[in-house]
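Notes from the 1:1 (GR / supervisor)

We went over the backlog. Supervisor wanted to see one worked example end to end before approving the batch request, so GR pasted a single chain during the call. The sequence is below; no edits were made to it. Supervisor asked that the structure be written out right there so they could see what the output format looks like.
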Amino acid sequence: MPDLNLALHLAASELTLVIGGLVLLMVGAFGGERSTRLVSILSVLLLLAATGLAVTGPLGAAFNGAFVADPLAVFAKALIYLSAAVCVILGDGWMARQRIARFEYPILIVLASVGMAMMVSSGDLISLYVGVELHSLALYVLAAFHRDNLKASEAGLKYFVLGALSSGLLLYGASLIYGFAGSMNYEAIAAYAAQNPGVGLVFGLVFLICGLAFKVSAAPFHMWTPDVYEGAPTPVVALFSTAPKVAAMVLTARVLGDGFAQSHGQWAQVLILISLISFAVGAFGGLAQKNIQRLLAYSSIANIGYALLGIAAGTETGIQAMLVFMTLYVVDQLGFFAVLLALSRQGRPIRTIGDLAGLSRQKPLMATALTILSLSVLGMPPFSGFWGKFYVFGAAADAGYWMAGAAGLVASVVAAFYYLRMIKLMWFDAPVSEVKPDASPIEASTVAVASAVFAFPVVIAALIWIEPAARHAAAGFGAG
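Structure output shown during the call:
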């Protein structure tokens, strides 16, 4: 009984979200579409409560090691829950203005958050797969949430089909690992790998990494990303760009650090190769894009390459750098999408880069916020994106991967072109038509301005506590 009580306390945030999500589902089912706003508000409160439970809860392992609550999981859960709450807020107003609001939207985000929390707390391959599939099933539905829109339906179908392929790769890799190691538990796998190094485990690990690379949209497993980003509703894309990527990155770090620390030389080569391909695809692929959301898809591919460098380093410093990078990246992405959600041209959402022409003359506050966030994402000092890349490149150089870091710097220079092009359009080109906010864009405008202020100067103060929190979360990496 004491073990059960401890297990329930360790999984308190997940249990709260599951039970709360089911209750909200009943509220929506009985209240109908009239309850959409109430369900959204309660979902945000539920996610905030889960954040508090995760941060203040006990640490340890439960369910025979399948569920792990440690500083790394706590850090990731706090970031996941908070970003998911912001996406609920952004989506509630935007979808109401687009007349596609449904009470299922916030509930799906809550359920996806449960899966993401399971991912970062996984202690074996079974809980890994359960978490991945739980969050993926909710995201498939969210991608096609605007069911009357052809592109949204196409986005959901492509995401589902390619997601099934990635799940197959992941399961095949997991089955190979289990077949050779004789256990699903990360610690047992690590013990076996230390005594019996061989090509079989590495072969299975490569398949496992390929499946996880799909979840973070790293090249060459990125084929779903541009189409899904373009077709899915903008608030859903904001979610795709933030919480799921944090969950998948932390899961990747946990699997490699806890289960395959002794094989660092092998899996680091795979991650470095994926990073280099992501740099090239993200930087050069974005140059030809005119749709803003497709452009952000390629930008996310490149940025995931930077984060993977931190994991590839195979050190506590590298994981700390990855966590700092992902935290700052999430804030930038939420702000970027908030700007898009706050503006429209002639009653329609902004979709193309040309729609930004002359924005500074009609909406100077939004233009300023978007300019700051663009400079931050491209890594211009002293904005937050610069500090994220500074930590990652430093960790890569310390681990001896300075050439990969140099390639990342070159990719940043190339990617600067499409961000500077947007800035030029906003400040120096004449507007083609009136730019006006949506009927009630206060929530999006607030998030956009807050994110821009965070990008600079608040980030300087925020790093004082983000950096030690990330260091504490990364402590012990590779010790399993």
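Supervisor's comment: The CA atoms of residues 195 and 262 lie 10 Å apart.
Batch request approved.
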